[in-house]
Amino acid sequence: MKRKKLLKRTLLILTLLIITFVSFLLYQTKDDINANLTNIEEKLNKYYSPNTMGGFAVSVFNADSTIYSKGFGYSSIQDKKPYTTNTQQYIASISKTTIGIALMKAEELKLLTIDDPINKHLPFKIYNPNFPNDEITLKQLATHTSSLDYNELVVESLYIEETEKDKSLNSFMSDYFEQGKYGEVKFTKFKPGSDWSYSNIGASLAAYVIEIVSGTSFSDFTQVHIFNPLKLNETYWKKSKSDSLLHTSYYEPVEDSITNVQTSGVILYPSRDVITNVRDLTKYCQAIISNNNILLNSESFEKMLSPQLNGPITNLEDDNNGLFFMIDRNNYGITYQLTGMSGGDNCITTMMWFDPKTKLGYIFLGNTGTSKLNRSNHNWIYNALVSLGYNYTIDNSTVSEKAKLRWHNIYNRVRAVF
């Protein structure tokens, strides 16, 4: 009798656990937006806040086609000029992905290897004074684990005339590391390779190494090996070369409104200054998603996009890093892991992320900085893009493909909880 009661109780508990687990799965994988090609524009207009956002463009795409792309708001509020898919702007730190591709191309050309100590190529030596016997490598620069500290006060104050860009890396690196013209070089207290510290200086130092080994400017190297092969004809390193009629105005959030501000290139331009539009950036990201051999061979793509950080890394903000590509979940409320990069400053917000499994990519380019008042708008917009990509793919898949996609969605969303 007791055994029967125990068995009934056990079955009841198991049933409750199964119901709870299934309910948990359904809750975690539910789509609160349910975007499709019919309602996506209405939803994005709903999430757009004209009081705190100037204009933006979005794109949802797979490896070989664009599913949806459109501009919203204004590139110039004063002139009531719409922000369109042709509108050009700075993309901030998404620019760093070009450094990752350039490093891989330089490795293919046998100019360097990603595991090289930087001092093998530099005309001066750089060591963390707390660890003078530990070499800093290119891979560490590319994963923000070099122990070079950010030093934002230096970086963000060095806006320059565009005519100075081609020689800016050489002059800055010598002035900063060799001459000490900007004061003490900042390092973290951690050993190279053990701590994550985001650094525009470290990123641009990697670009400077490419200049040294290739004997050409970083802008020319990327033009020859990235922009030209992909026919990115509306992508530039200098504002003067972009179309002045298509280049957006920029806006900074101030209290519950936005104000027009001026921005220009920085001395560490490889970390920030790519100018493009959503059409060219979509084409660029599609080449990465598809491992287009016009850019790199498959081994180089694998190395660049796969997790590079093994073991404990102090202060790591993402799940992992590729080479100037982040691998993370919970970007803008997206609960499963994506690969890509975001960028921004006081007057720019940009996002370029993709799912390597489904080959779906999502881009947001905005001419207004992120603030407490518009952050939720950005989150909802990006969630709507992901919802559209998922539902579009489900609707256009075979039965077996649908099952794989649903399992992938469930797996990633549940994994994001833990």
From TrEMBL:
Xref: Pfam families: Beta-lactamase
Gene3D superfamilies: DD-peptidase/beta-lactamase superfamily (3.40.710.10)
InterPro entries referenced in this protein's UniProt entry, alphabetically: AmpC-like, Beta-lactam-related, Beta-lactam/transpept-like
Domain Beta-lactamase-related: residue ranges: 53-371
Cross-referenced SUPFAM superfamilies: beta-lactamase/transpeptidase-like
Entry protein name: Beta-lactamase-related domain-containing protein
